[in-house]
Structure formats: structure tokens, C-alpha cells
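Dear H.,

Thanks for agreeing to be a second pair of eyes. The structure we're designing against is below in C-alpha cell form, covering all 222 positions.
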């Protein structure tokens, strides 16, 4: 089979990826002994809304700097601070905070936000490497992780890998609209039809031709 990517994919990616990337890495309730704290308030507000503000940014930064956090708590607080920056469009700082969170052992789910920031910065190789092992991602977020990995693969011009990730995302969550929508931009054609048209680039392992190698993906423009 041939995996053919039509150019209309460009218009979809920004809205789809932005919606997926704003998933907060929530601090666990066992981290905080009693009462409220900036870190817990930051996590609660991230869970309540998809938006962000400078007030929330300052709150989450204050939470990440709390001296009484456990190692697990600090990792989650840094991930939350990175997620706020991602929502505000401060991508470079988002990568810094989310990477620090990963180094400190943040929940695996935080790779979703980190990968989204990397993709928007057109650092697809790093995003694909980050998402190469999805063990530990929550089952309900696995379709999102697969979608982001597919997006990174498209930036790398690896159309077949992107297509297979999207198929897996829809297998796990048949109603997952972002993957369903992106799949509509693929045309699958039998290899025999490509051979008749004179195409010769063949994948011997899958008996297919990957013929969408020059498309460009711009996740910054609608």
C-alpha cells in the first residue's frame, strides 16, 4: 500500500495539537500534607481550565519554588509550570521546565506537553525520540501521545509511521476526533496501482510505497 498525504493537512494541525498539548501534569494529592499551597492551587486551576494567565504563571512558579515539596511534588510542580508556559506560547521556557520535570521523575504523561512544545518549535527529532517509548503513559492519554508522535513523524517526513500511529490511536479510542480527522488527509493506494503509474520506490518489508515525502507542516499558522 502507498501512504499518500494530501496538502490539506496543514490547516488542521495547529488547532488539533494546541488542544492536546495543554494537558496538565497534576501533582498528586499525597504530596501536600494539609491545607492549600501555591503548588496545589496551581494544579487545581490547571485541571479546571484550558486557559492560562500571568497570574496563573506566577502562582505555578511560586509552587515550583516551594521548599517543602517532596521530589515527586517538585517534579509535578515543574511540569505544571511548564504547561502554563506552553499554554501562553512561551515554548522555549516550556521545554526547559518540562525537561527538568522529566529529569526529576515527573509522571510519564508530562511527555505529551513536552512533545507538543518540541513539535511547535520544529524539533521533531527530539519529539519523536521522547515519544519512542510510551510505556507508563496513562491509558486514557495514550491516543493523545500517539497523535503527537504521528505529528512529529509527519514533520520528519515519515508518513507510514504517522499513519500507523493514527490507526492505533483510533483503535484505542474510536471516537478520538483529532486522529480521525488527521486520517482523512491520507489516501491509501495499493502498490500495484503505483507500479502501473511508474513509481518505483518500494518498501520491501511492507510491499508499499511512501510517496508523501515533501509535504511541510506548519504548526504555527492556521
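And this is the sequence the design step returned. I haven't edited it by hand at all.
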Amino acid at each position: 500500500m502507498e501512504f499518500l498525504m494530501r496538502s490539506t493537512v496543514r490547516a488542521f494541525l495547529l488547532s488539533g495539537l494546541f488542544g492536546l498539548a495543554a494537558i496538565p501534569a497534576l501533582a498528586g494529592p499525597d504530596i501536600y500534607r494539609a491545607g492549600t499551597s501555591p503548588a496545589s492551587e496551581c494544579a487545581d486551576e490547571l485541571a479546571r481550565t484550558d486557559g492560562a494567565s500571568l497570574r496563573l504563571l506566577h502562582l505555578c512558579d511560586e509552587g515550583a519554588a516551594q521548599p517543602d515539596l517532596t521530589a515527586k511534588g517538585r517534579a509535578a510542580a515543574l511540569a505544571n509550570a511548564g504547561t502554563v508556559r506552553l499554554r501562553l506560547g512561551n515554548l522555549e521556557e516550556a521545554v526547559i521546565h518540562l525537561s527538568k520535570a522529566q529529569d526529576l521523575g515527573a509522571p510519564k504523561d508530562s511527555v505529551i506537553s513536552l512533545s507538543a512544545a518540541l513539535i511547535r518549535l520544529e524539533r521533531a527529532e527530539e519529539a519523536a525520540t521522547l515519544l519512542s517509548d510510551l510505556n507508563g503513559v496513562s491509558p486514557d492519554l495514550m491516543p493523545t501521545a500517539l497523535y503527537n508522535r504521528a505529528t512529529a513523524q509527519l514533520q520528519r517526513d515519515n508518513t507510514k509511521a504517522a499513519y500507523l500511529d493514527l490507526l492505533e490511536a483510533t483503535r484505542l479510542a474510536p471516537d478520538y476526533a483529532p486522529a480521525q480527522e488527521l486520517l482523512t488527509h491520507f489516501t491509501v493506494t495499493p502498490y500495484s496501482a503505483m507500479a502501473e503509474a511508474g513509481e518505483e520506490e518500494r518498501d520491501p518489508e511492507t510491499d508499499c510505497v511512501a510517496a508523501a515525502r515533501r509535504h511541510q507542516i506548519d504548526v504555527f499558522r492556521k
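Two observations from my side: Strands lie at 2-5, 186-189, 209-210. Residues 36 and 42 are 10 Å apart (CA to CA).

Warmly,
E.
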